[in-house]
Predict the structure.
Amino acid sequence: MKKYIVILTILSVSLFQSCGEAAEGMEKLKGERKTIVTELSTLQTRLDELDEEIAELDTTTIEEVKKVSAITVNEEVFEHYFEIQGSVKADKNVIVVPEVGGLISEISVHEGDQILKGSIIARINSDVVSSNMKELEEQRDLAKYMYDKQQSLYDKGVGTELALKTS
């Protein structure tokens, strides 16, 4: 039993001794850290002083430009444009066909305008249409005259029913 007490005592003493050495080592490291922090602070202060002296003596540096400016505000129209490239796809493609032929004399819309069904988008030169109408009226008048003549001849018994129907 005495043997066990001696072994426990030796172990206890060695444990306390090792704890004391660890505490001494930690205190030593903390002291070294504090010294380095103080030196670093001193070196940073000296570095800032050197930078200021160099800035005063250096003639190659350009003065900094003001980063803020002020202007008098005036009321005016603001126009801002930018150019981009790309392709545009329409929701609906429409084919426009005129009711009559002729030369376009006026276009009432511009590219990109929105139009509704029935809107006038162009005017056709009416001279061509008018001359066509006049020619058709003359042909109608001639056909009516020929029919009346054939009817008159048929009524008198001189003309045939076939000639009347072909007129």
